[in-house]
Amino acid sequence: CDGERSYRIIWGSTHSAESGDIDIHSQPGTASVCACPAGNWQETIESLKRVTLIWAVGGVDGIKYVSGGVRLDVNLDHTGALTYQSLTTESPPADPVITTRATLSGSYNFTWRVIGGRLFVIRQGGTTHINLHSETHFKDGHVVINDVPNVGRSIAGSFNCEVNLLHISPVPGNAAYDLDYERIGGAPVPDGH
Fold first, then answer.
1. How far is CA 144 from the centre of its chain?
2. Among candidate residues 127, 130, 39, the one with its CA nearest the CA of residue 85
């Protein structure tokens, strides 16, 4: 569905040795061939919980998923967006901290290609608007609130698609976790179908 294609055309004639013109058009792809990874996807709760465990920042173990989600929109025109839907995590107590709760919100836009079975994503400059809001509660009662920009995760990697499931494995040297998404709505259909 994506990338270069090679065609072999064989044309023979017994009527004339003269040359002529011929128009050749490839048949447009169908939704069943080209729909994946295009579509609207919601990360599964199981994937969010698994990824959250890996987020242990500064050696803090036990970070857990609380609520929210991640939506991935991969459009047929090779544009897309990754959106954090108030993805909230919480870390366990660590003296003198009672708890830290962090929430990611916002999105970034990208263009995408599939090359050699791998999904490649290029972020669009100036479109990353992700905020990490954290609240740290201390035993003495004070609370520290931080709001800082965040780049969000990479979604590039090899992928496996079924009708309603998308699994992305990381590119070596990139993200260290697999991501699983469920399709929201039906598969997109290319224009003219």
1. 32
2. 130
Phi, psi of 189 (to 5 degrees): -115, 125
| 37 token code pair | 């990874």
Segments of the chain assigned E as strands: 39-43, 64-74, 79-91, 97-115, 118-123, 129-138, 143-150, 157-161, 165-170, 179-183
What contacts 16, CB < 8 A, 6 or more positions away? Answer: none
Residue 123: φ, ψ to 5°? -65, 145
Provide mean pLDDT across the span 156-167: 87
Q: How far is CA 53 from the centre of its chain?
A: 19
Cα→Cα distances 72→92, 157, 169, 174, Å: 29, 14, 15, 18
φ, ψ of residue 86 to 5 degrees: the values are 50, 50
Indicate the burial class of 2 (C-beta count within 10 angstroms; 0-12, 13-18, 19 or more). Answer: middle
* Cα–Cα distance measured from residue 104 to residue 129, given in angstroms and rounded to the nearest whole number: 10
pLDDT digit string, tens, across residues 145-157: 999 998 888 788 8
Helix or strand (DSSP H, E) at 47: helix 45-54
Name every residue whose Cβ is closer than 8 Å to that of residue 145 and which is 6 or more positions away in sequence. Answer: 133, 134, 135, 136
Please tell me the pTM assigned to this model.
0.75
